[in-house]
Design a protein that fits this description.
The chain is α+β, with helices and mostly antiparallel strands and 281 residues long. 23% of the residues lie in helices and 41% in strands. The protein has seven helices and 16 strands. The strands form four sheets. It has a five-stranded antiparallel sheet, with no helix packed on it. A five-stranded antiparallel sheet has the order 13-12-11-9-14. A four-stranded antiparallel sheet has the order 4-5-2-15, with no helix packed on it. The longest helix is centred in the middle third of the chain and has 15 residues.
Length: 281
């Protein structure tokens, strides 16, 4: 078991004062089979009343509005989470069995369809099909597809945005974890494997001693269904484990974006993000 303290600060700076803003934040982890949330809280500046609810995808959402003029909106989410080790069991399932199982659940059907962000280009379709045809077990095929996409992509910041699509990032073979996840999702769905986008945090330093605070990451990875849901981090080419903290799942980034909203004013906004993670046990 690993206990992680996470401090995630984000928000918008405006070029001048805006009159009001209306926002939703998805920044707090959820308790699951593999992680237990001991504490979580969001501080909003300027001060704002907030309401909380669980959305369709099972995420904790904080909805709030700031009705006084402000030139910066700042959110600080603080969480303490215990993460358990997990086993990634092997499932002996064939392609026809997977096709039947995928149709039996609304959740699986929802994660079979492509979105604007995940729709794969033709050469990625060909690659995914070539890999899938080599395996009798779709679980093995899914893992190899995720690994191959990760191998072909270079992690480069600044060449894509939150609006970029899988096709755009794949064309340049460059992007960040969000892009790599979208590419893998598109490839998996194209061969009939339900797959979903996972948003969370990654502790980047496996050897960090207890008490050391490191610069962490808002992170994204994939989960696919082949008898059970199985996670993998294609950006880092590793299984999901005690360094990964889950916030939520969805069809793509649009379902799980940490902060979104609208504001009244003519000034441009600039996003800022910092994440600090401390291993406490």
């Amino acid at each position: 078991m690993t206990r992680l303290h996470i401090r995630h600060r984000t928000g918008f700076s405006y070029a001048g004062k805006v009159n009001a803003s209306y926002n939703e934040a998805r920044m707090l982890p959820v308790t699951t089979e593999h992680q237990r949330v001991l504490y979580s809280h969001i501080d909003i500046q300027p001060g704002a009343s907030q309401s909380t609810y669980t959305d369709y995808w099972g995420m904790n959402v904080s909805a709030f509005e700031v009705l006084t003029p402000h030139d910066q909106l700042s959110l600080t989410a603080t969480s303490l989470v215990e993460v358990q080790p997990r086993e990634h069991a092997v499932h002996d399932m064939g392609w026809s069995e997977l096709a039947d199982a995928a149709r039996e659940s609304v959740t699986r059907v929802e994660h079979l369809g492509q979105t604007r962000r995940t729709t794969p280009p033709e050469d990625l379709l060909v690659l995914a099909r070539e890999i899938a045809d080599r395996f009798e077990n779709p679980c093995d095929a899914a893992l190899e597809i995720a690994r191959e996409v990760g191998r072909q992509m270079s992690y480069v910041q600044g060449v894509t945005s939150v609006y970029s699509t899988a096709a755009e990032a794949w064309a340049n073979r460059k992007g960040v974890c969000q892009d790599i996840t979208h590419i893998v999702l598109g490839a998996l769905r194209s061969v009939g494997i339900p797959a979903r986008y996972v948003s969370g945090y990654l502790h980047p330093k496996p050897s960090a001693p207890i008490g050391e605070t490191v610069v962490g990451e808002s992170h994204a990875w994939v989960e696919w269904f082949c008898g059970a849901w199985r996670g993998f981090d294609p950006t880092n080419q590793i299984d999901i484990g005690e360094r990964h903290v889950l916030i939520g799942r969805g069809r793509d980034y649009g379902d799980v974006s940490p902060l979104r909203g609208v504001y009244a004013g003519s000034y441009k906004s600039k996003l800022f993000v910092t994440v600090e993670i401390t291993r406490e046990a």
